[in-house]
Amino acid sequence: MITEDKAYDILALNQTATPEEILARYQTLKDQYKKIKEETKDLKTQLAYQLKQIELDDVFIYLRTCQKI
C-alpha cells in the first residue's frame, strides 16, 4: 500500500515538492525504467523494472487522488 511518505521516497523528493516537480520526476523515472527494461536481455531485470513501473504508476495515482498533482 502506498502512503504519502512512501510515495515521496519512491520519487526521491521531499514533501514540499511542487506539482510540476512531482510530474517531472515521475516522467523522468518512467522514461528511465522503460529504457532499461527495453534494452536489457535479462528477463529478471525486465520483470524488476516492470514492477518499478507499476509502483511508479501507483504513486502517480495516489498523489493524484490526494490532489498533490
TrEMBL record:
Domain of life: Bacteria
Organism, as annotated: Chitinophaga chungangae
Protein name: J domain-containing protein
